[in-house]
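Journal club prep, notes for RB
We'll compare a predicted complex against what the paper describes. Inputs for the pyridoxal-5'-phosphate case:
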Amino acid sequence: MSSIKENLKQILETIPNHVTLVAVSKTKPVSDLLEAYHAGQRVFGENKIQEMTQKWEELPKDISWHMIGHVQTNKVKYMAPYVDTIHAVDSLKLLKEINKQAIKNDRTINCLLQIKIAEEESKFGLSDTDAIALLNAEDIKPLSNVKIIGLMGMATFTDNQEQIKKEFKHIQSLFEKLQPDHPQLTSLSIGMSGDYQLAIDCGSTMVRIGSSIFGARNYSH
Ligand SMILES: *Cc1c(COP(=O)(O)O)cnc(C)c1O
């Protein structure tokens, strides 16, 4: 079995410098995160607030924490003191709450708008039209302590590379269409263990990789 350190090294060798590696450590013990930390990794992604907060408390404070899962408005306050980037923002209501909690903590929180690109019905996210409307809404102008830095997408859970490519191309073209009017959009968060090379070919600047670094997740216990 290869080590976390070796996995990280291998992945970093295959991604360009301008692409941020978010090490997705959900369900993994603090000891695994520390191993990655000691290998130089500083950006970690979690999808449950309680778990992320517990790890934040235990681990070195120079880690950049990314919330990659769906966020309920009433949970924002728990991560506002420390979270760096929230990937799955999909409403004005959520943005307002993030701003409110960021102000309370005298911080700015980076946000990515989640775009619905998968065909599956269950996935969260905004349609292209709703994302454009949100970015242009007067209501977001007063939100002083959130910074919308880009878009995030999750492709359909499938082995069909053509399908995934089509979905990545969709978000890439939306991203490129929005950039001239919204120069603050610099990040495109697409790509996971199985499809990050494809995502990088489609313009990804942030890959969220879990199992290829830490091994398969076990949800059975
Ligand atoms: C779990 C998760 C990942 C990482 O998935 P892997 O296939 O293990 O790399 C990426 N993004 C999100 C939103 C996730 O929930």
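Talking point for the session: The two ends are 22 Å apart (CA to CA).
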